[in-house]
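TL;DR need structure tokens for one chain.
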Amino acid sequence: MSRLLTLLTLGAAASTAACTIPTYEAEPVSVYQWERRQQAVEREQAERVRLCRITKDEDPRKEELCRGVSGDKD
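>> reply
TL;DR here they are.
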């Protein structure tokens, strides 16, 4: 029983620690990698703008979704 409790505690600690460790993204080294990175940033921004545009004003997530989006209604 003690061993099971120890394993559960260690498992919980490991899963909590995994959530707090920041992810590391290496800097691109080639032109192709920079281009892919820039395209990914543009896609993410376009998705944020789309979500902000289609979210109804009474939705509680509206403020969070539209934060940092230019051209929002606020």
